[in-house]
Amino acid sequence: MNSGPKVARISLLSTGSLSNDNSRRPHRSSFVDSGSESANARPSMKELGRQWSHHAPIYEEVFLDPFRPGVKNPVLEAILAIPEPDKKSIIDLGCGTGPLLPHLVNRFGTVRALDFAAGMIKHSRKRLGDDAAKVEFLHQPMHDLANLAGTQDVAVAINSIVMPDTRDIDKTMKAIRACLKPDGVFMGVVPSIDAIHYSTMLVMDRALDEGKSPAAAEARAAALVEHHMFEFAFGRFQFEKILQKFWQPFELEYRLQKAGFTDIQLVKLLYPWDDDIAGGDAFAEYPPSWDWTFQARP
């Protein structure tokens, strides 16, 4: 499973006001039926795999790439700084269509890529071409890694720890820890709910500067940052049939510690105000938005 943004898509009109262009791109996560009684209804793993396989052909159009030029990605920097990579094993957990894999192949001694959607693995192979033969592809869920116990020097999860049910998150993190060697490292990226609050502040402040009343400014921010799609108290976001987890940094640290990880480090991944955020140049003078990256030891 892979990436997407965490800020509302915003466009600046000629009048100077802001309007939603209705083109938010979500991170990969779980599908729910829009007519279901509960937003937390969970489809079967088979259905999830089918849905993601169905979306694989348009993946690049719908989801943002955290490895694209202009993104300051501490995880990629950390991966490229790993000493003697040719002697180490690495696994891309929730590989999606494989944007991370070109950075791993021909660098690490053993490269594995795991996804529960067969269609995603198919597109990962296509991305790599002849180099696909150098990757061991695994069609299985992240919470079931018993076949990899104690085998990995490095495990990476890029925006794939986004299950809306925290029980699934806890199970997955424990499985990842168990797949690592004693001196291994787990690193990744998660979507940040605090960045949504940041976007809300920027939009509201812009409206206040335009002379709007506090009530009108709040209403504009809530609409443009799509507050109706969020459960802020529990860090969940629903886009059409996709329900996913967004994170606070303290929660990320807590979940990693609960799974038994130590030496936890959190650093922001910074997104540029570029064409991937419509009207992003309206906020170019402000610090960029972010997701949270992490490194942890078993």
CATH class: Alpha Beta
Strand order of the largest sheet: 6-5-4-7-8-13-12
Shape: globular
What is the number of beta strands? 13
Percent strand equals: 15-25%
CATH superfamily: Vaccinia Virus protein VP39
Give the terminus-to-terminus CA distance: 22 Å
Give Rg in angstroms: 19 Å
What would the CATH topology be?
Answer: Rossmann fold
The total count of helices amounts to 8
Largest sheet descriptor: 7 strands, mixed
Low-confidence stretches: 1-40, 49-59
Structural class, from secondary structure content?
Answer: alpha/beta
Detailed description of the structure:
It is a single chain. This protein has 298 residues and is α/β, with parallel strands linked by helices. It has a single domain (10-195, 226-297), classed as Vaccinia Virus protein VP39 (Rossmann fold). Helices cover 28% and strands 24% of the residues. It is built from 8 helices and 13 strands. It has a 7-stranded mixed sheet with strand order 6-5-4-7-8-13-12. It is globular, with a radius of gyration of 19 Å. The two termini are 22 Å apart. Residues 1-40 and 49-59 have low confidence and may be disordered.
